[in-house]
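User: Hand in any protein.

Assistant:
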Amino acid sequence: MDIKNIATAAILTSMAAHAVAVDVGGIINSDSIWDNTDEPYEIIGSVQVAPGVTLTIKPGVTVNTGSLSVFGNLNAIGTAENPVIFNGTHIRPGENKASRRQPFRIDLQYSKVTGGSLYGSTGGATYGSLNLSDSILTDLPYIYLWYPVANSNIERNIFINSGEISAGLSGNTRLYIANNVFIDQAGWSSIMNWAAYDSSTQIVEFNSFLSPDRIALALAYSNSKMIGMNNYWGTSDQSIIESMIWDRNDDLSLGGYIDYRPFLLSPHPSTPIWKSHTIGVNISPIEGGSVTCTPNPVNDGMATTCIASPVRDYSFDGWGSDCFGEISPTCVLQNVTEDRTVDALFVDTGEPHQPINAAVLPYARAIEAGQSATAFATIINNGDRTAYNCRVSLSKAMQAEFIYQTTNTSNTLIGIPNEGADIPSDGAQGYAFAITPLGPIHSQEIPLIFECDNAYPAPSHIGLNTFILTATDTVTPDLLAIGVTPSGDGVVKLDSSDATGFFATAAVNIGSAGLITVRADDGGLGLPANLHLCETNAVGQQIACGNDLTRTVAEDQTVYYTVFVTGTGEPIPFDPSKNRLFLRFAAGGTTVGATNVAVTVP
């Protein structure tokens, strides 16, 4: 069955009504102030700030969803204690080619921006400037500065899982990017310059780049240039730093070189301290079961989902510490702002329960916001009795609508939507599911919950039964990828600790045409193996090889890649739930496809 059409017959109802809010929309033609901190401002459709007009948003104000287009001036100035909060709001530059003498200006300070977008590309001319400081920005696509007409400054911000800052400059303007933290950037790079004409300059200094497996600074085209000295790279190894820079050393058609020396050996004192928080897990008794928390560590202010899974002769008996009071084996910790601890209590009943496991395919999807992402799941009953009413659900940490339905062995829908199924001993049941997020999200790893009436939830394992979802305002590539190994069991098995193996991947693009970047990794585990990526044709002949491969993919086109895996002299234990290798496809700064396999080295 065509995966694009799994849920086309399902009509998804909307979730609970919005809380009381101040509804706003239309054109603002005179200076205005938003200062209501008791109820959020809910943008209905769009708000446009007219040329010459200033919209001021006061500390503590929350703005939800919608589009805020700035043809005049936006001043959203919060405080450290009371930031201005934007949830899923698209803060757009106004297209003002005809009124260039009245440029817009967007000023944000002490703001918390989650989802939506900030100063994105409109497809037209946008002449203005941006001042962004002391803010936290999460899950945003790229910031696109189209020839700003005044100096712009981006200082002391934290960018989490967000796209690159992409700029073209002209005249005598200066773009100053300083004292920011970049973690897990979703774009191809953290900061890019694609043009710097006349005496314009792009200065990048005192920043902390904390993702050594990704490009931090990049040039594009022959007229690009950037000053990149005095940054902290998380390492003093210059070979690693140079791998985080894309310039004429990598492509002779580019304008020049980015000089990163001297560089900092520790973060600059005026740069924010990056905060992520660890979820500590205590299990009592230790042999009673396991707990997985996804994600862990947790980005500051975000949520994690913990699932307790007892072993065969034990039962779950409750949570302690930060999950105390939750009676379900699934516990969601919201707004994590410090290290947290969960205690899982198990009891030896002497009566075996029904152990279940689960898998999801494909591992990642990318959709247009408002649409449904569909995929397949399988629940496996490893017990010796029938497992009753086995079903799939979504973690409460995810703001989305969810529907599932059983399938037969041909992946054809059967049964009734949102109704579970009984699974006999050593049997398996397939499901199709659809997720409709309530707003844009970017490369979010979603832990699905698989449970039966007489079985505890299946353990959650990244890559095996989690699901990466991207939902953006525009149609992007959406690659359905599957990886295969020579053994046919999804495991790369090296014959010795210095041998080479491989896995191959085919990915079909069911989304729009677009530029994609492909990268292989080990999920951040630091496994003792080197990965080498090659694009191939359908029969395995190599086309191009490298650490990152970029190409344009057409609609309905299938592309092929091989990842070569070479051991570095140390063993990798056989643990398919943990030791895995990933191949990821990205477009416009977000994941649009992924697959993974297990790996073991004797």
User: Anything to note?
Assistant: The chain is about 0% helix and 50% strand. The helical segments are 238-243. The chain has a mean pLDDT of 90.
